[in-house]
Specification:
With 100 residues, the chain is mainly beta. It has strands at 2-5, 14-21, 27-34, 48-51, 56-57, 64-74, 91-98.
Length: 100
């Protein structure tokens, strides 16, 4: 489960992505969706929002450790949002192990 909370009212609608990046650097699984059961442009400051996610992993994905990355993008332009420090356009959430 992912939990969100706005510190300021977002100026437009955003979506988030979760990518499963394999040992070869390729995206082998992902999900993209709107967050929080309503457009982010209508989020209220301080109100908690939550989402359940289930990234689909390709049937032919190899066994190994996968990085789980999360990011946001403008919709419908698909332009990714940078992190506040400008270092990247996603945050690494951790790793999972895929066994075959």
């Amino acid at each position: 489960m992912l939990q969100w909370q706005a510190h300021a009212v977002p100026g437009q609608s955003y979506r988030f992505f979760v990518h499963l990046v394999g040992p070869d650097g390729k995206i082998w699984g992902q999900c993209d969706q709107s967050a929080g059961q309503e457009p982010t442009s209508r989020w209220q400051v301080g109100k908690p929002y939550a989402d359940l996610i289930a990234p689909a992993l390709a049937a032919d994905a190899p066994a190994g450790r996968y990085h789980v990355n999360l990011g946001w993008y403008e919709y419908p332009s698909m332009q990714r949002l940078p992190l506040a420090d400008g270092s990247a356009d996603f945050v690494a959430l951790g790793e999972i192990e895929v066994a075959r």
